[in-house]
């Protein structure tokens, strides 16, 4: 069995695609690499922010649900999304930048042996920057240019996803016994005991962090995370993982063609939605790399409905 390679992407909810675009490109300096729609409901945008090339392991994605209410935080949730920066100095840069922009941000703190910085976007999306100084084992992405963010301070990919669950054993069973992660350490943080699971090369791009909590189940809304996707090499490996998930007794979606990658979805015993996604073929399938995200991209099976779909979407200016 090949190991899971790390985090592939994280998908969250937003109530306003234009405001979301402004925050993630203008404030965080990420690149919009794909402006498309939810393939299961093409009336809503699906936006992908990533590194320069839209590399696997760098994608933070958002479904637009205009009527989404606020999130009522709680357990049984993906409670925070990690983003990677190159150094401790970059953590200091982001603390000053986010403070100056009046973004809700905490103070730098050590977590999992690395300097981190927790903050929230304009909808309460919880994000934590992780310094790669002691966590760069899994290769990161390539920075995207931004006039106010030096390249050495830029966001370069996804860091650990944090899960908050009521039953540790139900999530641990999936991570250890199904997905072959390794439990590497635990530590006390203000939210409780943080348990760190790692796969493949490890480090910021290949960890899942879990906190056990007795609080009520989260009621998701704008600013909540829908699912976390984990990296597999190709469709052959994905089919092998499907067999493993089947053998473990977890109901799943079966193999789903997403055009830019191929996926398998299933939930653990706490209701956390995991996706396994292939590294390819990638976002350059229908757009040149230098023009990623500039136009509405549709997979072939939706292309014949382009006029209908575009009429229902409010334009987003992508520069």
Give a verbal description of the structure:
Helices cover 18% and strands 34% of the residues. The protein is an alpha+beta fold and 319 residues long. Strands 2-3-4-1-13-16-15-14 form an 8-stranded mixed β-sheet. The longest helix is centred in the first third of the chain and has 13 residues, at 88-100. The radius of gyration is 18 Å and the shape is globular. The mean pLDDT is 97.
Summarize the structure.
This is Ring-cleaving dioxygenase. The chain has helices spanning 17-27, 88-100, 168-178, 235-247, 300-303, 306-312; strands spanning 7-14, 31-38, 41-50, 59-64, 77-85, 109-111, 114-120, 126-131, 157-165, 182-189, 192-198, 207-212, 225-232, 256-257, 262-267, 273-278.
Number of helices: 6
Indicate the low-confidence ranges by residue numbers.
Answer: none
Q: What is the residue-mean pLDDT, rounded to a whole number?
A: 97
The strand line-up of the biggest sheet is: 2-3-4-1-13-16-15-14
One letter per element, helices H and strands E, the order comes to: EHEEEEHEEEEHEEEEHEEEHH
User: Can you tell me the CATH superfamily?
Assistant: 2,3-Dihydroxybiphenyl 1,2-Dioxygenase, domain 1
Based on the structure given, which CATH architecture is correct? Roll
Supply the helix-strand structural class. Answer: alpha+beta
User: What is the CATH topology classification name?
Assistant: 2,3-Dihydroxybiphenyl 1,2-Dioxygenase, domain 1
Output the radius of gyration: 18 Å
Number of strands: 16
Q: Helix proportion of residues, in percent?
A: 10-25%
What is the percentage of strand-forming residues? 25-35%
Major sheet details: 8 strands, mixed
């Amino acid at each position: 069995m090949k190991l899971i390679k790390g985090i592939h992407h994280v998908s969250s909810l937003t109530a306003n695609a234009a405001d979301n675009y402004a925050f993630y490109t203008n404030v965080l300096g990420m690149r919009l690499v794909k402006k498309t729609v939810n393939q299961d409901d093409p009336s809503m945008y699906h936006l992908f922010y990533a590194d320069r090339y839209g590399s696997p392991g760098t994608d933070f994605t958002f479904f637009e649900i205009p009527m989404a209410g606020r999130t009522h935080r709680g357990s049984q949730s993906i409670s925070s999304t990690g983003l990677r920066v190159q150094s401790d100095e970059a953590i200091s840069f982001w603390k000053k930048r986010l403070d100056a922009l009046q973004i809700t941000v905490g103070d730098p703190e050590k977590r999992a042996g690395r300097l981190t910085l927790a903050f929230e976007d304009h909808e309460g999306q919880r994000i934590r920057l992780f310094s790669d100084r002691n966590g760069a084992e899994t290769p990161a992405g390539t920075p995207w240019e931004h006039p106010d963010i030096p390249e050495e301070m830029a966001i370069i990919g996804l860091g650990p996803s944090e899960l908050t669950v009521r039953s540790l054993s139900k999530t641990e069973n999936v991570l250890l016994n199904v997905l072959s992660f390794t439990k590497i350490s635990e530590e006390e943080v203000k939210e409780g005991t943080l348990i760190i699971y790692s796969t493949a090369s490890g480090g910021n791009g290949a960890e899942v962090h879990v906190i056990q909590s007795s609080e009520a189940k989260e009621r998701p809304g704008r600013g909540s995370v829908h699912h976390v996707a984990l990296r597999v090499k190709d469709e052959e490996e994905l089919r092998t993982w499907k067999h493993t998930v089947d053998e473990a007794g977890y109901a799943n979606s079966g193999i789903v063609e997403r055009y830019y990658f191929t996926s398998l979805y299933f939930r653990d015993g706490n209701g956390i939605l995991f996706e396994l996604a292939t590294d390819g073929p990638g976002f350059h399938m229908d757009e040149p790399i230098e023009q990623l995200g500039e136009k509405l991209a549709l997979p072939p099976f939706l292309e014949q409905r382009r006029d209908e779909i575009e009429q229902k979407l409010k334009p987003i200016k992508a520069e």
